[in-house]
Each structure stands twice: as C-alpha cells, then as structure tokens.
Design goal:
By secondary structure, this protein is mainly beta. The protein is 0% helix and 48% strand. It contains no helices and ten strands. The strands form three sheets. Strands 6-7-8-9-10 form a five-stranded antiparallel sheet, with no helix packed on it. The protein has a three-stranded antiparallel sheet with strand order 3-4-5, with no helix packed on it. Strand 3 and strand 4 (33-36) form a beta hairpin.
C-alpha cells in the first residue's frame, strides 16, 4: 500500500491517506472535517465545531521503531471514562506498518503501552437468555 495525497474538499488543505483501502475515514488537521476514506471523492461525513484540545505528542505521519519494527502514526484520538465520579483521560495512537499491520500505542500520564492484536483470539461463548 502506498500513501495517497489529495486536497480537503472543505478547506483545500493537503491530506495524506496513509493506509488506503484499510482506512474508513480521515480527519483534516486544518479545518476539522471528517471525510470518507472509502469514497474516491472523499465526501464530507462530519465537521468538528472546535479544534483539538489536545495536540498529540507524536505528530501524525511520524515514523519510529518499536521492538525492531518500523511504524507510522496514522491516527490519534483522546479517550475518557468516568469511574466512581473520577474522569480518567488517555491518548491513543493508531500505528501502521504495511507488513505488520495495525498496532495501538496508548499514553496515560506519561506512561506508554504498546498493544498488538491477539493472533488467535478465543471464541466468544454464546450468551444464554435471562433467567
């Protein structure tokens, strides 16, 4: 897979689709528009009302080596959960290597976790009806 570049239909900013065929959507860093990565015309799906509150520590498009494999940061999101009235927030980076596939790199309060998919996930047990 080779990255493809095109202009945002909303603002004209340059965008690079890092994993064509595998990406579902792409967000414009210039105007906040979310575009359909599967549509050849990259139609607008949504538009953010405000810019990102959290700038990623790792810029999108940055490449690095983790455990001997090269990956590129192709996605970023900020997550939050409330547990017993306390909000916990963390950052998630989607990493991509055309030979190794996708991985996640999570950051919480300066602590980093590298996640890879389980090669042979167990079968989900069938749920039984309520008793």
């Amino acid at each position: 897979m080779v990255a493809t570049a095109f202009n945002c239909p909303s603002c004209g900013g340059t965008l690079s689709l890092r994993a064509p065929g595998a990406s579902q959507s792409i967000a414009c860093e210039h105007c906040g528009s979310v575009l359909d990565a599967q549509d050849p015309k990259h139609r607008l799906l949504n538009k953010y009302k405000a810019r990102l509150k959290h700038e990623p520590y790792i810029p999108l498009g940055k490449r690095g080596n983790i455990k001997g494999d090269d990956f590129e940061a192709i996605g970023f999101m900020r997550r939050k959960v409330r547990y017993y009235g306390v909000d916990y927030e963390w950052s998630e980076y989607l990493l991509y290597n055309p030979y190794k596939g996708f991985r996640w790199l999570l950051e919480y309060n300066g602590h980093w976790t590298f996640l890879s998919p389980v090669p042979n996930p167990p079968d989900q047990p069938k749920r039984q009806g309520k008793r």
